[in-house]
Amino acid sequence: MIARKYRFHGYNALNFVYKQGRTTRSSACLLRYAANPRRSHCRIAVVVSRKVAKSAVDRNRIRRRIYAVLEARVGELPAYDLVFTVLSSDIANMEEKHINKTIIQLLQVLAVEPVEK
User: Per-residue pLDDT tens for 13-49?
Assistant: First the structure.
Protein backbone atom coordinates (compact mmCIF):
# COMPACT_ATOMS: atom_id res chain seq x y z
CA MET A 1 0.00 0.00 0.00
CA ILE A 2 1.28 3.44 -0.82
CA ALA A 3 1.89 5.98 1.93
CA ARG A 4 -1.01 8.11 3.14
CA LYS A 5 0.42 11.35 1.75
CA TYR A 6 0.23 9.91 -1.79
CA ARG A 7 -3.47 8.96 -1.54
CA PHE A 8 -6.66 10.92 -2.15
CA HIS A 9 -8.81 11.64 0.89
CA GLY A 10 -12.56 11.51 0.41
CA TYR A 11 -14.70 11.10 -2.68
CA ASN A 12 -14.86 14.82 -3.41
CA ALA A 13 -11.09 14.99 -3.94
CA LEU A 14 -11.43 13.11 -7.23
CA ASN A 15 -13.86 15.62 -8.74
CA PHE A 16 -11.07 17.99 -9.80
CA VAL A 17 -9.35 15.26 -11.81
CA TYR A 18 -12.59 14.10 -13.41
CA LYS A 19 -13.56 17.65 -14.41
CA GLN A 20 -10.21 19.27 -15.30
CA GLY A 21 -7.94 16.32 -16.07
CA ARG A 22 -6.78 14.77 -19.30
CA THR A 23 -7.11 11.12 -20.27
CA THR A 24 -4.91 8.43 -21.75
CA ARG A 25 -5.75 4.78 -22.04
CA SER A 26 -4.50 1.30 -22.74
CA SER A 27 -6.54 -1.80 -23.42
CA ALA A 28 -6.89 -2.70 -19.74
CA CYS A 29 -6.59 0.62 -17.92
CA LEU A 30 -7.44 4.31 -18.24
CA LEU A 31 -5.41 7.11 -16.64
CA ARG A 32 -6.91 10.49 -15.81
CA TYR A 33 -4.34 13.04 -14.74
CA ALA A 34 -4.21 16.70 -13.81
CA ALA A 35 -1.28 18.86 -12.76
CA ASN A 36 -1.56 19.99 -9.17
CA PRO A 37 0.76 22.96 -8.53
CA ARG A 38 -0.44 23.27 -4.90
CA ARG A 39 1.24 19.99 -3.97
CA SER A 40 4.85 18.92 -3.91
CA HIS A 41 4.04 15.26 -4.57
CA CYS A 42 1.54 13.22 -6.54
CA ARG A 43 -1.75 11.71 -5.36
CA ILE A 44 -2.90 8.35 -6.69
CA ALA A 45 -6.21 6.49 -6.76
CA VAL A 46 -7.19 3.19 -8.39
CA VAL A 47 -10.85 2.72 -9.32
CA VAL A 48 -12.23 -0.75 -10.06
CA SER A 49 -15.91 -0.85 -10.92
CA ARG A 50 -18.29 -3.62 -9.98
CA LYS A 51 -18.89 -4.06 -13.71
CA VAL A 52 -15.25 -5.11 -14.09
CA ALA A 53 -15.28 -7.68 -11.28
CA LYS A 54 -18.39 -8.67 -9.35
CA SER A 55 -16.54 -9.98 -6.31
CA ALA A 56 -15.01 -7.51 -3.85
CA VAL A 57 -12.14 -9.94 -3.39
CA ASP A 58 -11.32 -9.73 -7.11
CA ARG A 59 -11.65 -5.93 -7.18
CA ASN A 60 -9.32 -5.58 -4.20
CA ARG A 61 -6.79 -7.98 -5.77
CA ILE A 62 -6.72 -5.88 -8.94
CA ARG A 63 -6.37 -2.68 -6.90
CA ARG A 64 -3.51 -4.11 -4.80
CA ARG A 65 -1.63 -5.30 -7.89
CA ILE A 66 -1.71 -1.84 -9.45
CA TYR A 67 -0.76 -0.15 -6.19
CA ALA A 68 2.21 -2.53 -5.88
CA VAL A 69 3.55 -1.40 -9.27
CA LEU A 70 2.99 2.28 -8.43
CA GLU A 71 4.53 2.02 -4.95
CA ALA A 72 7.99 1.48 -6.42
CA ARG A 73 7.68 4.63 -8.58
CA VAL A 74 5.73 7.00 -6.37
CA GLY A 75 8.82 9.02 -5.37
CA GLU A 76 9.79 9.67 -9.02
CA LEU A 77 6.39 10.97 -10.15
CA PRO A 78 5.77 14.72 -10.62
CA ALA A 79 3.06 16.62 -8.70
CA TYR A 80 0.05 15.27 -10.57
CA ASP A 81 -3.26 13.88 -9.42
CA LEU A 82 -3.54 10.42 -11.00
CA VAL A 83 -6.67 8.27 -11.19
CA PHE A 84 -6.28 4.81 -12.71
CA THR A 85 -9.59 3.28 -13.81
CA VAL A 86 -9.49 -0.43 -14.58
CA LEU A 87 -11.42 -1.35 -17.73
CA SER A 88 -10.84 -5.09 -17.87
CA SER A 89 -10.73 -7.91 -15.34
CA ASP A 90 -7.77 -9.38 -17.26
CA ILE A 91 -5.43 -7.55 -14.88
CA ALA A 92 -6.38 -10.00 -12.13
CA ASN A 93 -4.70 -12.85 -14.05
CA MET A 94 -2.06 -10.88 -15.94
CA GLU A 95 1.63 -11.39 -15.23
CA GLU A 96 3.20 -8.65 -13.15
CA LYS A 97 5.64 -7.64 -15.89
CA HIS A 98 2.70 -6.96 -18.24
CA ILE A 99 0.94 -4.85 -15.59
CA ASN A 100 4.20 -3.00 -15.01
CA LYS A 101 4.59 -2.36 -18.75
CA THR A 102 1.01 -1.10 -19.05
CA ILE A 103 1.37 1.32 -16.13
CA ILE A 104 4.73 2.62 -17.41
CA GLN A 105 3.22 3.28 -20.85
CA LEU A 106 0.41 5.29 -19.26
CA LEU A 107 2.82 7.25 -17.06
CA GLN A 108 5.05 8.19 -20.00
CA VAL A 109 2.46 10.84 -20.92
CA LEU A 110 3.42 12.75 -17.75
CA ALA A 111 7.03 13.06 -18.91
CA VAL A 112 5.88 14.74 -22.13
CA GLU A 113 3.28 17.08 -20.58
CA PRO A 114 4.57 20.44 -19.31
CA VAL A 115 3.57 21.21 -15.73
CA GLU A 116 1.22 24.22 -15.60
CA LYS A 117 1.77 26.72 -12.79
Answer: 899 899 999 999 999 999 999 998 888 899 999 999 9
How many Cα atoms sit within 13 Å of 5 on the Cβ side? 6
Residues 100, 69: Cα–Cα separation, whole Å: 6
Asked whether the beta carbons of 16 and 55 are under 8 A apart, the reply is: no
Q: Are 31 and 18 in contact (CB under 8 A)?
A: no
**Three-state DSSP class for 65?**
helix
**How far apart are the C-alpha atoms of 80 and 35, rounded to whole Å?**
4
84 falls in which pLDDT band (50, 70, 90)? Answer: very high
Domains of the chain in sequence order: 4-112 (3.30.230.10)
Report the phi/psi class of residue 66: left, alpha or beta, with left for phi > 0 and alpha for psi in -120 to 50: alpha
User: Rounded to an integer, what distance in angstroms lies between the CA atom of residue 37 and that of residue 117?
Assistant: 6
What type of residue is 100? N
CA angle 76, 90, 87 (to 5 degrees): 70
